[in-house]
Amino acid sequence: MIKNKSGARLSTVSQVYLIIATFVAFIFILMLLIQIQINVLMAVRAYVGAEGLWAKAQKDAVRSIEHYAISRNEEDYKSYLRFIQIPLGDNKSRVEMQKSQPDLDIVREGFLKGGNHPDDIEYMINLFLKFNHISYISKATEYWTKGDQLLSELNNEAEQLHAEIVSGSFKPSAVPLLLLRLDTINEHLTEQENQFSLTLANASRWASDIASKVTYFLSFIFTVLGVGISWRIILRMRTIEYDLLHSEDNLRTILNVSPIAVRIAIKHGREVVFCNKSYTDLIKNIHAIGDDPKKYYVRPEDYEEILSELTLGRSVINRQIELNINNELTVWTLSSYMPIQYLGEPAVLGWFYDISHIKKHEAELSRVAHYDLLTGIPNRALLADRMKQAVSQTAREQNMMAVCYLDLDGFKPVNDSLGHDAGDYVLVEVAKRIGDTIRGGDTVARLGGDEFVILLLGLEQGEECVTTLERILAMIAKPIDFKNKINTVSASIGVTIYPLDSDDPDTLLRHADQAMYIAKQEGKNRFHIYDPEMDRRARNQNEFLKSIRHALEHDQFELHYQPKVNLRTKKLVGVEALIRWRHPERGLLSPAEFLRHIENTDLDIKVGEWVTATALTQIQQWRSAGLNFEVSINISGYHLESPDFANKLQQQLADYHDLPVGRLQIEVLETVALNDITVVQRVIESCRKLGVGFALDDFGTGYSSLSYLSSLAVDTIKIDQSFVRDMLEDKGDKAIVQGIIALAKAFERQTVAEGIETDDHYQTLLDMGCEVGQGYGIARPMPANEIINWQASHC
Fold it and tell me: What's the predicted TM-score (pTM) here?
């Protein structure tokens, strides 16, 4: 019997040791998992911060090169080079890390050049090298790579622009299309950056979710294992010899070494009759016997719900319960309950495992994943959730929300001259000042670098945010004292209002960002409210310019020709080439529907060159068919005054060396000729040497003086159709037409009347002495292949 007793005790002690060893192993594994999880989230946070830095630098680089294209000031180009080094540094690191044997010194050098904090670099390297096979990280790398490709395009545009400006070959007329290309690259870069941040945010949530599930799974397995062994010990005690079975001291000794808190309560779970040392340590009360367990629950209804389920004969396993300890602190436990018989009486067995440290780590992980570590305010990931909630709340309450994108002015000099510590202090102070200025229900978040976003909710009118914005600007502009050195920064804020603008958070941020750059351009230390209608018009304009370029590249334009006849002989003496757009969806479009969109742009010149080339080809074809008459084309003032207009025209004419003088005529608006008469006069004289004639179009609308008319070497004066159309009813218009005809004869210029719509117009002009006319009363514009038939039947 003694031997059996001793063996039973040894077996029991061994099982207790097994419980302790299992708990130690579990805690070690748990802490290892938590450390890995923290490292991953720290790395993700570092990459999100890096994205904020390179996104801001990329935008500043684009603005700098746009300014350079307009100003051609080398300081703007130097600013571009300074800003572009940040994303290029990160690009250098990525390229090196994707090699089979990366040089980590090069990687670190690239990340440092990218403005990343030295403490973050090792996290970033480990995440990329060790976890790049995970779908989220590989997808983020894919967006990063695409962004670097766009960055290369941007840099190529900048280098080409710089080379052209330095060599003197840059043409100001190319600026509008260059700005369009730069804006397109910037939009695509922003899209890749947003996708990169979103993917990393998803990776952060995924890693946190996986780690939590593994942690809870191990907790469950361990709890079940520990409880099973503990309960087996209790049952074993009942089956062994009488002195051990009834020895309360031995039972307490065994259970007290268990790290699981155990409690047995009778009277429907209302009175504790047994508990071990781990339980009394947990509740900080050595006199727990006789207590009603309910008093320890932060939410007493949780315990009532548990008792209800036990009454139905169901066990409650692994319920997270928060316990109140002496009204001073709370402890989170993973608790399980089951109905049992204790000394012949119904009872409730409960066992508890303290998971407060897990909850603490969860809170820390959440803080790392969702809050900016420097300022303690929400980061980009949490901002995305807050914006979604804010949009829903605003829609539900039917009021307004202001999304404010804030960028500090003058922060870089502080950071560069006084160091990162001073820069960090300024950022913390600015975040605090913003937080003190806005209301409790509003949000301020840091995107990265010196960029913040503020959400102002509950506005009845969009203008209500103005007072708050003015307070924020005033607070930020106050001096900041760092180690007895006074620093001063200001802020530029871009604002967009929901629901006046889109309900998409990314779009709202992009529009607020655009408005912020306008605030900077207008002088900084101010705010600018985004205008959706103006932006819509600008985007429509950009899209329309793209469609016109596409039409030019895919031969969708064509020329129609309107006959000009000698009013006395009715013979065909020439045609005016008029552009048309054979739109694939809208059909045939007149020039009034699209030419105004390309005024003063590079496309204006390209379309003009296409018209010239097409007209010259058609002249040659008609000459081959035996038709010899003048073809006039319309050239805009922007095109006419562009550099090398005459030289380019000479190059186009070189392919038609046998073209008789006067077969090609250029029509120039009178208002254009008067805009810069010296330049226009010089261009006309150069072109006339090439055998090209000129007509002054819409004469009478520009109020030319006699001296101007005499100095312009034009062959023809075209009477504006508005005077011709109304001259039969309006004596004033008739007098103007008569005066123009007389003026043309005095200066030995030919006259062409536009807008002849009736026989009365025709006869009146003939009686006045007008030589040539055109209009719907003679013929409408027609395709080139119809001119020959029209001439045969009408002339």
Answer: 0.52
